[in-house]
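[step 3/7] fold_predict: job queued, chain A
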Amino acid sequence: MSVRILALVGSVRAGSHNRQLAEAAVKLAPAGAEVQLFEGLAEIPFYNEDIDVEGAVPAAAVRLREAAGAADALLLFTPEYNGTIPAVLKNAIDWLSRPYGAGAISGKPVAVAGTALGQYGGVWAHDDTRKAVGVAGGKVVEDVKLSIPGSSNRFGSIHPADDAEVAAQLVEIVTRLQGEAGEAAAA
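[step 4/7] structure written:
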């Protein structure tokens, strides 16, 4: 049986290097792991308890929760916007955190990776994302980190899947999530 890993991308820009990283993870997933790239984060309204009630939950939020619920682990790719998490990704985490204590990511292994233009590769956003996911109930795999600096230069003429160093690191991350999900299922 294959381990299902749901990839969420914190950038909705068509040419996003973080989206390209997620595409590379899908393409390079090792045997026994399937990475699914979630489409539609931009369609999900901002979290609001008034609409998070049975019969009123927006269809886009239901799709996100169902996809996360069916996954064994999550892999979040995020750039850094003004030193922190992009709103679209934080909003997704908020929707996945409810109902409190029993959200779709509760207890599931989650890793964070990404790239940004700056010299630190979005490390602040990655740290904030790990914090938000942990508070939301996910089991953050703290020692899995990939923050690639200088995204425009590094990926200006090459797709991340064709960058040997990045490809190897993505395979490592997916393999680690695969193992964490296996351990969680056995527990």
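[step 5/7] annotate
The longest strand covers residues 139-148.
The chain is about 40% helix and 20% strand.
exit 0
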